[in-house]
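Hey Z.,

So I finally got round to the zinc ion thing we talked about over coffee. Here's the setup:
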Amino acid sequence: MHNPPAQVICHILDTGHCLAHERMMLRGGSSRQIECHALVALIQHPEHGWGLWDTGYAPRMLTETARWPFWLYRRATPLRLRPELALVEQLPRWGLAAADISWIVLSHLHADHVAGLRDFPQARLILTAAAYADVRGRHGWRALSRAFIPNLLPDDFERRATLIDEFPDPPLGPLGPTYDVFGDGALQLVALPGHARGQVGMLVQTAERTILLAADGAWLTRAIREQRPPNPLTYLFTDDRHAVRETLRRLHDFARQRPEVALIPTHCPEAYAREVLA
Ligand SMILES: [Zn+2]
Ligand SMILES: [Zn+2]
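And the result:
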């Protein structure tokens, strides 16, 4: 690509948080509890209009986890949600309504990333074929073991989904080959394997800066900086523990090569403080 990349406008929003012990998120971490926010991005593309990176928490997460076995999900990650933080409730701040959202990129299909999805019935959905194949048709325990809550997916999910099965575009340094979402360099997906099958991150080009939305490739920016993987206990719910470490190493190398890029792991309190509170 020889043309300069197109630029988007990108707002980072909080959709609520759960509580987790630092030592689970970071090997050798302390026993203090941290607030793990579920950050999402509201993006305006010059040609393709308004879209989202993930959809975060929404109040239906509480009703969907009220019953066994999904109740266990809530036990594991105590939720602190406020209805007004649901993404669809925040759109009026930009003069937008749900119908204005025309595309959504999903990093992966864990419940904390797709709980808001049903609020956007018109959006085209972009995700990897691998992420969908891993959860498709799973119910009950078989779904819970993937941190997947089937009812959170809209009934017409398949009709609206664009499933990506390869990354044909030029590599992004140590993060490897990319998938250029709109073919103009503004939004580039990279594979972040390990945490969940088919997970992607997204490099976002705005006029002011470049952002790497790192999904759950690492839970904390500190984990990337210090290259510290999560507690081995979390590997019970992890797709591929070796790939988790390899992805963390690649994120670490990328952050060193490109220190100007703002890293935004979905649940990182540091990113939340900088992007949402500041
Ligand atoms: Zn996840
Ligand atoms: Zn997550």
